[in-house]
Write a structure and sequence with these properties.
Keywords: Disulfide bond, Ion transport, Membrane, Transmembrane, Transmembrane helix, Transport
Helix content: 55-70%
Membrane topology: Multi-pass membrane protein
Family: Belongs to the organo anion transporter (TC 2.A.60) family.
InterPro entries: MFS_trans_sf, OATP
Distance between the termini: 45 Å
Radius of gyration: 27 Å
Structural class: mainly alpha
Pfam families: OATP (PF03137)
Length: 283
Amino acid sequence: CEKEPSSYMWVYILLGNMLRGIGETPITPLGISYLDDFAKEEDIPVYVGCLHTTAMMGPMFGFLLGSLCAKLYVDIGFVDLGSITITPQDSRWVGAWWLGFLIGGVANFLAALPFCFLPKSLTKPEETKNEQTSYCLLDATRKMLPPSKNKPRKCQLMYSFLSDFYTSLKTVLSNRMYFTFLCCSLLQFSSFIGFITYKPKYMEQQYGQSTSKSNFLIGVTSLPPVGLGIFLGGLIMKKYKMGIVKATKFAFTMSFLAYAFSLLHFFVGCENNVVAGITVSYE
């Protein structure tokens, strides 16, 4: 072609994912702190398990929705489907990938509405109330003090910020318990993301499955056991009232067993395809 067509639709997808990330911030990181502040100590593991289990159900339904959308032609609603001569098994087939964004966006909007009815504040334990009163008194005392005449310069503020940030980072990374958990989480997420990212394409190319069927199989077989395991882990922690050390030993044991079971994949395989000149002779 003399001039290749260009599209800026990726900008809308970029902005949409950015807004989604902003909206997820109060739920994922701050949601755990919210539960930790307002829930009973013995119920926190169950609530956190329910939160992460629900978070795992989302990708499962996402894969199932992707399987359904992959069966639909990309230009559905704009072309006569009777004139389409290819099937989803054809390598030239392109599914209606954009339909999942519309359905997911509407579902996110509806799921966000109940949060508008949450109370502005909840009843805190007495200890927390006392701490809050102390902070309020300290803040009021600071407000009563006369403002300083010499305002700090921007370079001084930047140096103070970097110094405090370095001190905080050093304190966090010197915590052996947190640092070990951080490394463990990085290894788990790295392997899990690679598993989710490449397994559908691997199933398509190695086993001749369609995109729709690959997404369906992964959504049904891979994610529900993970969500069930998270929920059961929360129940076990509540039942045996595990502290930090016991929870760490429990997590290490389960992770090691999961690694040992994953090694069994080396013993699972299929026969090689018959390829003339490679696996069999030309004769």
